[in-house]
Amino acid sequence: MSDSRNEGITCEFLDECDVVWKRPDSLLDVRLHYCPGCGHSVVHKLLMEVIDELGIRDRTVGIAPVGCSVFAYNYLNVDMQQAAHGRATAVATGVKRVRPDRIVFTYQGDGDLAAIGTGETIHTVNRGENITIIFINNGIYGMTGGQMAPTTLVGVKTSTSSTGRDVKQHGYPLKIAEMLAILPGAYYVTRTSVISSKHVRKTKKAITAAFQYQIEGKGGVSFVEVVSNCPAGWKMTPVQSNKWLEEKVFEYYPLGDIKIPDKN
């Protein structure tokens, strides 16, 4: 909406206009610590939009572990609990079992969920806990110095793979979503991105579905993987990092539904 159309319009009338953007009520009005171009802030906004729209803010509990997401409780205005590195899904299991009336989600990066937390993740999904897992996969340890992650692509140089990821030394990048989808406790598994407005809309739709399944008590774990960028860790500009996602990363981590209820 142009500036001229906004003249004289007060907030009480915005619902009648073409609102392009506004801060969700559940997203605190504070400065984010994320690097410029990082996808975390976009996913934070989508999460809070969905929670507000579903009207579940007063009964939602989020679990944030160690990694770039460690300060999520500074931004997400819902009940939050920090977990030790890799233990987010274990903590979420405890919260959900003690308070089954709560809507519980974890917000985790690849270093947390796919490395130190692999065991917790697999067994949580295998048990079919009725929780939502939001997994941010940017293929690197963004917070601690740019080390190689389990999801780092073959040939990519990091601070711990100076000549590039070598399959003979390091193995292949883990496709976590595909691994989890084969477990009977996985109810909904999808992979999205926030690289463009089209992908942002699809990610919001996926997060909405994941929470809706939990609200309805259907199936087990709903798992949303968001393939994101890390301009700082990749040593690229935000534009370059988005191009790298499109040209290289999506080829190995294809976007789309992997397991959906109607086709299980």
Walk me through this protein's architecture.
This protein is of the alpha/beta class. It has a single domain (33-263), classed as Rossmann fold, CATH 3.40.50. 36% of the residues lie in helices and 17% in strands. It contains ten helices and nine strands. Strands 2-1-3-4-8-7-9 form a seven-stranded mixed sheet, sandwiched between helices. Strand 5 (140-141) and strand 6 form a beta hairpin.
Key phrases:
about 260 residues; alpha/beta; Rossmann fold; seven-stranded mixed β-sheet; two-stranded antiparallel sheet; about 15% strand; disordered N terminus
CATH first level: Alpha Beta
SS class: alpha/beta
Number of domains: 1
Number of strands: 9
Residue share in helices? 25-40%
Low-confidence stretches: 1-14
* Strand order, largest beta sheet: 2-1-3-4-8-7-9
From the alpha-carbon coordinates, what is the Rg to the nearest angstrom?
Answer: 18 Å
Described by the principal axes of the CA atoms, the overall outline is globular
Strand content: 15-25%
In CATH, the homologous superfamily goes by the name Thiamin diphosphate (ThDP)-binding fold, Pyr/PP domains
CATH topology heading: Rossmann fold
CATH architecture type:
3-Layer(aba) Sandwich
Pattern of helices and strands: HHEEHEHHEEEHHEHEHHE
Q: Tell me the number of helical segments per DSSP (H or I, 4 or more residues long).
A: 10
Average pLDDT number: 90
Distance between the termini: 42 Å
Largest sheet descriptor: 7 strands, mixed
